[in-house]
Amino acid sequence: MTFSDSSSARSRRTALWTSLEPGDNVLLRMHGFVHHRGTVDDRTQDGSTIWVIDRLGDRRLFHIEDDLELDLAPRT
Question: Which domains are assigned to the chain?
């Protein structure tokens, strides 16, 4: 991977995290496996931290630097 590739990937990751809005459904994966799934409850203004509520109502905090891949999920 070249420096520009990693910089580009970081930019895409930042753009996705900062675009999240409350109510967005997300999947958070670790090593390709779903680690957490839920609905964005809130995020910090800079988009570096999100709170996600799962289907049981548990609320968890995730940071952009956590070792997780974030994807938007279809609404269920």
Answer: 3-72 (2.30.30.520)
